[in-house]
Amino acid sequence: MSVDDNLEEVLRSLPKNVTLVAVSKFKPEEDIMQAYERGQRIFGESRAQELKEKYEKLPKDIEWHFIGHLQTNKIKYIAPFVRLIHAVDSINLLKEIDVQAKKHDRVIDCLLEVHISKEDTKFGFTPDGCREAAAEIRSLKLENVRVRGLMGMATFTDDREEVRKEFKTLKTLFDELKYEMPDFDTLSMGMSEDYEIAVEEGATMVRIGSMIFGERQYK
Ligand SMILES: *Cc1c(COP(=O)(O)O)cnc(C)c1O
């Protein structure tokens, strides 16, 4: 199967109101351009320098999302153009994004990452930590970031009910915080293996890589 066929199949399986982020990390520009030619404009990357290089070479109407763990010293590479940062997991990181965005006279959209999985290697706020962070963000009134919602990753497991339970936890927290966070409209959850469950549980945005571009070779 080619990238465009895969993309078409994924798009057919998604409700119209769910936004697809095509995760192109580790994939060459030719693959991205195949999806681009089919109309895909939102792509996700997880390394700052790789994202910067791709941004420079590829069409300027691509909307680039940063989906990985972001270190504060790497924000500068992506601040001039990045549209949405999915995995903000500390107030300090959010403040630094605000500083870098200001330098470019931009407002950068961000999501708060919530740790919902059983794995302890993944980053993110606990649900309570996220509630506290939301309160602090409201009091800070940062002008160059806009917190649009939440992002999470479920446990990597064949246990579909466990995955569903974790997505439900995130959706419940999202609905709770939406009342206090005026810009909340985005719930980013679901990857190649579990996006159908995520959509059933209320995802507004899914991040799909290998199902579109094939398995990745990590070098
Ligand atoms: C790599 C990655 C994805 C895409 O994973 P696939 O299993 O290839 O669909 C989604 N979200 C994040 C945060 C990732 O790092």
Structural class: alpha/beta
Bound molecules: pyridoxal-5'-phosphate
Largest sheet: 8 strands, parallel
Note the overall shape.
globular
Count all strands and give the number: 8
Number of helices: 9
Task: List low-pLDDT spans.
Answer: none
Helical amount: 40-55%
Can you offer a commentary on this structure?
It contains nine helices and eight strands. The protein starts with a helix and ends in a 6-residue tail after the last helix. It is α/β, with parallel strands linked by helices. An eight-stranded parallel beta sheet has the order 7-6-5-4-3-2-1-8. Helix 5 links the parallel strand 4 (84-88) and strand 5 (108-115). It binds pyridoxal-5'-phosphate.
Descriptive terms for the model:
8 strands; binds pyridoxal-5'-phosphate; 219 residues; alpha/beta
Give the SSE layout.
Layout lengths: L2 H11 L5 E5 L5 H9 L4 E4 L2 H10 L5 E4 L8 H4 L5 E5 L2 H13 L4 E8 L11 H14 L4 E9 L6 H19 L7 E4 L5 H6 L4 E4 L1 H4 L6
Parallel strand pairs: 1-2, 1-8, 2-3, 3-4, 4-5, 5-6, 6-7
The structure holds pyridoxal-5'-phosphate.
